[in-house]
Amino acid sequence: MDLLWKPSEEIVRDANMSRFIAYVNQKFGTGIRNYRDLYNWSIENIQEFWNALWDFSGVIYSRKFTRVVEDLKKFPGTKWFVGAKLNFAENLLRHKDGTAFIFRNEAGVRRALSYQELREQVGYLSNALREFGIKPGDRICAYMPNIPETCIAMLATTTVGATWSSCGTELGANAVVDRIGQLEPRILFTVDGYLYKGKGYDFTSNVKTVAESVSSLEKVVVFPYMKREPEVSHIPNAELWNDFASENKELKFEQVEANEPVYIMFSSGTTGKPKCMVQSVGGVLLNHLKELILHTDLKKKDVISYITSPSWMMWNWLMSSLATGATIAIYDGNPLFPDWRTMFKFMDEEGITIFGCSASYIYALIAAGAKPKDEFKLKSLKEISQTGSPLSAEGFRWVYENLKRDLWFNSISGGTDINGCFCAGSPTLPVYAGQLQAPALAMKVFAYDENANPVYDQPGELVCEMPSPSMPIYFWKDKDFKKYRETYFDFYAEKGKNVWRHGDYVIFHSKTGGITFLGRSDATLKISGVRIGTAEIYNVVEKLPEIADSLATSQDWKGDQRLILFVKLKPGYKLTEELKTKIKEELRKKASPRHVPSLIIESPDIPYTVNMKKVEIAVRNIIHGKPVTNRGALINPESLDYFEKIAKELQKEI
User: Is-above-0.85 flag for pTM?
Assistant: First the structure.
C-alpha cells in the first residue's frame, strides 16, 4: 500500500459527500459516519438511497415517482422512478446566471457562453425541432466535434422529449452509418469541417456519405464551424444552422416518463456492428447527479474540463455538469498538439479546477518527459479525474511527483453501457497508488472467481448484483432482452447467478477498500490455465525507455495458448535480441514467468478505439483469421494492416 494523498479536515468538512451523509442521517435517523458506512447503507437500502439523492440534488419534475423502483429482482428490465414525469434538459438548464461554457480550439479561437445565452440558443433550436414536427420518441443524431453547438443540439433534442445519439468527427463515415443507421433518425446535426493537429479538414464529403446512406434522414443541419457560408447543396436535405433555427427562443420543456429514452449509446463495434444501448431520462440524470455532485464533488464555483469527444460517454457525463451551475471548459483538437503543454496552458489561463483525462493521456505525458509543475502554476487545479483504461501505480505516482502534491487524483471506471461508474472516488477518502478509491454508491459490485464466489486480494471478474437506474432499459430492437442477456448475464447464469458481468478483470483490496483494474476480461489471457490481465504486462513493458506502446494478445497453439507481445518502439531504437531478453527478464521479475511472451514482435503502431482503448480482441481475431468488420470505430484503422500481414506468417507456424 502506497499512500499518495489524504484529504485535509477542511476538504472533508466542505465536501458534498459530507453534506449528503448529514442529510441521510437527518432524513432516516441513521448513524452514518464515513464513506464506507454510506456505501454499505446505499447497497442495503437501494430505494431509500435513490429517493434521498432525488431530493438532495433538487431534481425538477412535474410529477414525482410513486415508487423508486418497480422490482429489484427484475434484472434486467426493471423500471425506475415509476410514475415520475420530468424533462432532462430542464434539469441541466436550471441555472440562469454565470458562465456555462468556455470554449477553445487548436486555431486559438476562444468563446464564452453564459447560462442565459445557452438557454436562448436552446430555445431557438428546440422550437425549430418542434416546428419541424419532432416529438418524444423521435431520434436525433449528431456527427460533430467537441464544440458548444453539440451540447446545444443535445439540449434542444431533449427539451422536446426526443432521443439523442452522437458520434464525433474522428469516426469514419461508414462507422457512423453503422451506428446511427440502426436508429432511423429524422435529423442529423453536423459541421462543415473540423480541426486536428493544426490542420482544417473539409467534412462535407463524410456528411454526404452519411446523408445518402441513412434513408430515414429528413434534414441535415450543418453548423458552419470552419467557414462562414459553407457550400452544402451537394448534401441531401441539408440546411445551415441559422437557417434552420426558429425565431422563437421561448423554452418549453416537454414532460416525459422517467423511463422513456434520453440517450442511445453505442458499443465500440470493433468486432461487429455496434450494439445500441437505450438509456432512460430519469436513470441517466440521477446517475450523473450522483457521480458529479458526490463522487466528483462538483460545485457551482468549479470549472470542469474533460478530454473527450461526442463519441464517448464521458462527453454525455461532462454535459450533465450544467445541472450544478458549474462552468464547462471544452477544448476541440488534439490535446498534445503542438506539444504536451497545451492543456496545462488551458488549465492555468481558464482557472480549471477539475481536469479529466484518460490513462493514455497520462502515459503520453510520461513518454514526453513532461514536468508540468516546473512550467505551470496550476493554482486553480484541485482534482484530476482519470478513466478510459487502467492506470498503473507508477502512473498515479507520476501525477503527484510531476503535477501537484496537494491534489485529489480521482480515478474512476464504469462504461458506456451504464453511462457512468461502477467504481469511483470520494474527496473524503485517501488515494493509494494504482487503486480506485471505492465502489460507487448504490452499486453492489464484487470481484467473482470462476465459481461465482466473491474474492478479495486476488483477481476476479467485476460483477454487479443489483440493478442500477442508468443501466440500459433495453438494446435497440431487442425488447425481449435477448442480446442484453447474452451481453451481460449469460456468463454466470449457468452457475445460478443473475448478475451483471461487466467484462473487467479487477482486484478488490480488503485492507484499503480500493479496487485495482487489470484490463478487460474478454481480453484476459489464459496461458497454461492461468489468467493474466493485459494491464499487468503493459505496466511493466511500457516503463522501459525503449518502448513507446505495446499490445499483448494470445494465439491458440498446440492445445494451449501462447502469449504474443507487440511493441511500438520509440524513435532511435531497434528490437534487438538484447532488448527482447530485457523485456522478458523485466516481466519475469516484476510480474511472473507466466507473463513472459513466447514471441515479441515490433509493430509500427498500436490500434485504439476513439476513446483511447487498445483493441486487443480485434488483433486476436485477426491472428485467428477472423475479420474486423468495423475499422471505422478505430482512431487509427490503418494500424490493422500490419497485423493482417503478420497474421499470415503466424498462421503458417500452426
Answer: yes
